[in-house]
């Protein structure tokens, strides 16, 4: 019977091409607007590391006090003194400390123009904590951290520029005027949003080129290539003065596998801040935070407000399209009241009438979904009109969005058809036969 009802539905669509075209266009434009904005919202609001987001935490310690902090919240990063204290305590199973660096890569030979390389100074646990994939080699060891080694991990993109994409582990190149040896080459890895550095980026920057040893960067007195936030009067003029200041620029992350470990680390942070107060360094009560990845994304308001607003507007437009579709379906179905009356008189049940007209609505939804796919493909390429370029380029029409577009179009149209189908199923056969 399904095939029979499908044939009836297709005949009905051909019988009223203008009405059918209006419904298909309403569904197509409505679902396309929703899917275009959803593709952006999905890209910026997803979980960047779903397998471990509940085990990764960023600690915050208030080193500024209630007169200068962020409305009672600690700074979003740590200064050198607090970062080194947490690093030495090593209260977590894994921990990493990082800050952005910007260096030049000397290509050598005839290609004497240097390349700009953006990346991070990190500690060894960075790669295992964040599950960084490698094409060649791997990260360095904790012993390399202690030895302030000149090891570096580079991206596949930089590896292609420097070494033609070959296995470059063990090779040496000049970075910022110093020689470094490659210990690993990453596969493409750039989680969106970039949860581990929301202090210096908006979460949607391009893939980093390099990762160097944190202690090595400090030895070379490399200033942060990203944000640097200070409070009060700044009197430092030397590198050591900068390290002892209240400027924050280092982002810490720790890996905690259980609620007990989380509670223990939070107590450690509180005790550390209390010790600083007792020592006279802090003139205020302990004020600390410990947020996991998703809590951190929410706190930092990573999802652009325009993406939420656009999605709400698009869904409203889709709802209006569905209301119009309900009216068109009602007109289409009730125009066939005589046909329905004859079918009911010949023994068709209301359930069969429901089935017939809902299947017909599903065919309209499918056609609208196909049109919506074409419009979505066009719209995704033009979202840069509404969103910043680094966000707009995240929107893409993949298999999951194709499937979702078709499913939403069909289900929405079937739901919109329930009231018209109910009216059609309750047509009184006697009235229709008498009027005929």
Description:
The chain has 436 residues and is α+β, with helices and mostly antiparallel strands. The chain folds into 2 domains: 178 residues, no CATH class; 193 residues, no CATH class. It is 50% helix and 14% strand. The protein contains 17 helices and 10 strands. Strands 2-3-8-5-7-6 form a 6-stranded mixed beta barrel. A hairpin with an 8-residue loop joins strand 2 and strand 3. Helix 2 crosses helix 13. The longest helix has 31 residues. The protein is elongated. The model has no long low-confidence stretch (mean pLDDT 88). GO terms for molecular function: transmembrane transporter activity. It comes from Rhodanobacter lindaniclasticus. Its main location: membrane.
Which secondary structure elements does this structure contain, and how are they paired or packed?
Elements: H1 2-15, H2 17-45, E1 56-61, H3 80-89, E2 94-106, E3 115-122, H4 126-129, E4 134-137, H5 142-147, E5 151-155, H6 156-163, E6 172-175, E7 178-186, E8 210-213, H7 214-219, H8 239-244, E9 251-255, H9 259-278, E10 288-292, H10 293-299, H11 305-334, H12 337-345, H13 350-380, H14 389-392, H15 399-416, H16 418-425, H17 429-435
Parallel strand pairs: 3-8, 5-7
Antiparallel strand pairs: 1-9, 1-10, 2-3, 2-6, 2-9, 4-7, 5-8, 6-7
Helix pairs in contact: 1-13, 2-11, 2-13, 2-15, 11-16, 12-17, 13-15, 13-16
